[in-house]
Amino acid sequence: MLETDHNKAFAKTMAQHKSFSSSPPSRSSVLNRYISLLNGFLFIVSILLLLGVFLPWSGSALFPFQNTISSSLPSNWRDYSLSQAAEFVAKDGTVIVCAVSYPFLPFLNNWLISVSRQKHQDKVLVIAEDYATLYKVNKKWPGHAVLIPPALDSQTAHKFGSPGFFNFTSRRPQHLLQLLELGYSVMYNDVDMVWLQDPFQYLEGSHDAYFTDDRTTIKPLNHSHDLPLPDRNGVTYICSCMIFLRPTNGAKVLMKKWIDELHAGSKAYEGNDQPAFNWALNKTAHQVDVYLLPQAAFPTGGLYFKNETWVKETKGKHVIIHNNYIIGYDNKMKRFQDFGLWLVDDHSLESPLGKLE
Asked: Which keywords label this protein (predicted)?
């Protein structure tokens, strides 16, 4: 009896299943199935877009220097202003600035490695002199480059003393003044420099402007930090490639005078903005509180690379090495290589930009 009832129930169930499977699906069930498939497809696409867009921008253990997008970072960095860029990178009211054209990206990367070793890379702002540099840096390191029109030619590595070099460097005081007006302290570096120690520990006191002497004459270790006396021609020889400025009235006066000097003597200064900087320093000496940084810590290239005895005597004191007193892209690179200061080949992953292709 139980077996017969079981067989009947089984037969009834199979008949119902056959009837259900053989009947065509309703329009609503087909529509629901398509909607379900579409939702699944859109979900997969969304995940892929999230991975493709946000992973390159986010920090990870493999890429420790890449920043997470901040609400202060404009959605279109191609158009953002110097004030927006400075707000994004500034730390403790300070911005480290360099100005770079595309051919010098390897030198930028070399400098950044040395800055990163001193843990100051996050406050670096690259003023891109051309759109190729702007795109390259912000693709690798979002938010750390800004372009202030007009853009320059991106293909030429301008040599010291050339009109192109002057067009490149003569805009420097205007950029620095704008940052001071925004209330930031600013350290400016040329990218043919290498940091061996943290330079901020040498910015003693609360002076308006800090700079280095570009002469090769050896100073005593306890030399004066005042502006050096002018030579027989009435000029000093201060380097305009490493400057630290506080957002004071004195620093702004100095930048404005530098700009005035460049405009007034553009033909005389063509190819080199440094004489104008020195005239500005001398003409504003009674208005600006200046500080000459120690020579042993911030030597000119004409001393560091050419006086082996002095280098040995001051070993351990060197902070920033400037690869000047030599002209030419390839010559600068070779000298860095000869002295073990070309870091890009073996240490590119220490740079926020990584390995440049």
From this structure: Cell wall biogenesis/degradation, Glycosyltransferase, Golgi apparatus, Membrane, Signal-anchor, Transferase, Transmembrane, Transmembrane helix
